[in-house]
Amino acid sequence: MADSDVRIGLVLPDVMGTYGDGGNALVLRQRLRLRDIPAEIVEITLDDPVPESLDLYTLGGAEDYAQRLATRHLIKYPGLQRAAERGAPVLAICAAIQVLGHWYETSSGERVDGVGMLDVTTSPQRARTIGELVSKPLLAGLSVQLTGFENHRGGTVLGPAASPLGAVVKGAGNRAGDGFDGAIQGSVVATYMHGPCLARNPELADLLLSKVVGGLSPLELPEVELLRSERLAAR
Description:
globular; alpha/beta; 12 strands
């Protein structure tokens, strides 16, 4: 991979970029470049079909109307689904979990059929969940706590084909009282962690990258560890 750019798909930032989750693509690119591995971000908007040929993909959060636009686009142009089928890593944040599931209900009670990449369903909770989210990782290859900021009203239930990303230590995660955050299914890793997620969880960033480029040399970035320490200590 060192002889050509690693292509990172930033999927629908025009409608799925409400909470700054486009930063995850920047983190992935920078962590590759710091290791002298060329990388580029390919933005895929509502004006573009979704290519299936990219190396990995990221999707972010959104509100109800934007979610519906994104869902229709991903169903019409199933490049993301085809890429995941061949094993390309996909990182889905917050509303993207819901979009990639079987169905989700909007705050008004409308049920929308999802893309079907994740065995999950989502319905509105009584109260919105806002605050710091910390979890113990349940995904092989991760060893340190995951940290992020959650801001969602949807409550997500996992079916048998999906497994959680982490066991909640602080916050709500998928659904108040459930005790888990996120979903893992095939090459898709999903979570309710904003932050951006990968800025606060470099181990997860490198795990996703390793699926594309193989083993990675460690990076010594004290400022990243300082950020993690500050956020893990937040109340």
